[in-house]
């Protein structure tokens, strides 16, 4: 069992839960190898275009739509572990909403601001499920995630634009939540309305994470009411979907 009833209860009440050792370090090394080619191509495109978005050259890099580009990563995000977790949280019909690697360079000097995932694109129904998977160890030194327990209870709050993404809670507020260091292969399951941030990577090595998000099938843009297109099915009637 990948998520127990007690863990689901914590997810629902606190907005997050840690799922220990879902994958082995060896499996994470394989995932890192699959991601690496796409990450390098993304870095080259950033350098050529000069347009970074929320990626910052030499600091933090977001490489999106990995599973849509790579059949092996699509197979990975449809593994039985993810089907079991997502259907337990969301119900029998689940789609892959979003997936991206988040690579934070060493010797950094900036935190990624507090935000809610829904702050980027409000959706209906909300919240969806974010799984923050440590590809290598996420530590206090290299900028692990921090969460603000129970903040999902506030609903979607206003966000402001910063130089490195949207922000909904000040980095100088006395309440800076709870850091959640986790080893490679462990995941943080979060509601998409939970406030979270990541710290400075003061280590000498890159911190690597794979963020995989699942939603109820037929998710809509909350602003337009339109069904979000091109989402890959993961489960139907509680059973895995292996092909589109």
Q: If you had to describe this structure to a student in words, what would you say it looks like?
A:
- With 244 residues, this protein is of the alpha+beta class.
- The protein has a single domain, classed as Jelly Rolls (Sandwich), CATH 2.60.120.
- 23% of the residues lie in helices and 29% in strands.
- The chain contains five helices and 16 strands.
- The strands form four sheets. Strands 1, 2, 3, 6, 11, 13, 15 and 16 form an eight-stranded antiparallel sheet that branches. Strands 4-12-7-10 form a four-stranded antiparallel sheet, with no helix packed on it. Strands 5-14 form a two-stranded antiparallel sheet.
- It is globular.
- 43% of the residues are buried.
- The mean pLDDT is 93.
Task: Give the fraction of residues assigned to helices.
Answer: 10-25%
Strand percentage: 25-35%
Report, as a whole number of angstroms, the end-to-end distance.
26 Å
What are the segments in which pLDDT stays under 50 over at least 5 consecutive residues?
none
* Structure annotation, total helices: 5
- Give the rounded overall mean pLDDT: 93
What structural class do helix, strand and pairing data support? alpha+beta
Strand count, sense and closure of the main sheet? 8 strands, antiparallel
CATH topology: Jelly Rolls
The number of distinct β-strands equals 16
Q: Name the CATH homologous superfamily.
A: q2cbj1_9rhob like domain
Number of domains: 1
Q: Could you state the order of secondary-structure elements as H and E?
A: HEHEHHHEEEEEEEEEEEEEE
In one word, what is the shape? Answer: globular
Radius of gyration: 17 Å
């Amino acid at each position: 069992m990948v998520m127990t009833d007690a863990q689901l209860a914590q997810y629902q009440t606190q907005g997050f839960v840690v799922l220990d050792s879902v994958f082995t370090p060896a499996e994470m090394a394989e995932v890192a190898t699959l991601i690496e080619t796409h990450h390098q191509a993304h870095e080259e495109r950033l350098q050529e275009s000069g347009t970074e978005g929320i990626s910052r050259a030499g600091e933090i890099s977001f490489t999106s739509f990995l599973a849509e580009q790579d059949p092996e990563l699509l197979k990975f995000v449809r593994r039985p572990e993810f089907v079991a977790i997502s259907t337990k949280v969301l119900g029998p019909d689940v789609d892959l909403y979003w997936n991206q690697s988040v690579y934070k360079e060493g010797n950094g000097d900036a935190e990624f601001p507090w935000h809610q995932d829904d702050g980027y694109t409000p959706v209906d129904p909300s919240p969806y499920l974010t799984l923050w998977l440590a590809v290598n160890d996420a530590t206090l030194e290299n900028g692990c995630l921090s969460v603000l327990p129970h903040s999902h209870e506030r609903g979607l709050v206003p966000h402001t634009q910063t130089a490195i993404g949207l922000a909904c809670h000040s980095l100088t507020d006395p309440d800076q939540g709870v850091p959640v260091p986790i080893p490679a292969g462990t995941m943080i399951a979060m509601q998409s309305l939970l406030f979270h941030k990541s710290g400075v990577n003061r280590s000498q090595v890159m911190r690597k994470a794979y963020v995989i998000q699942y939603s109820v099938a037929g998710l809509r843009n909350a602003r337009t009411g339109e069904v979000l297109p091109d989402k890959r099915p993961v489960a139907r009637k509680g059973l895995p979907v292996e092909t589109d």
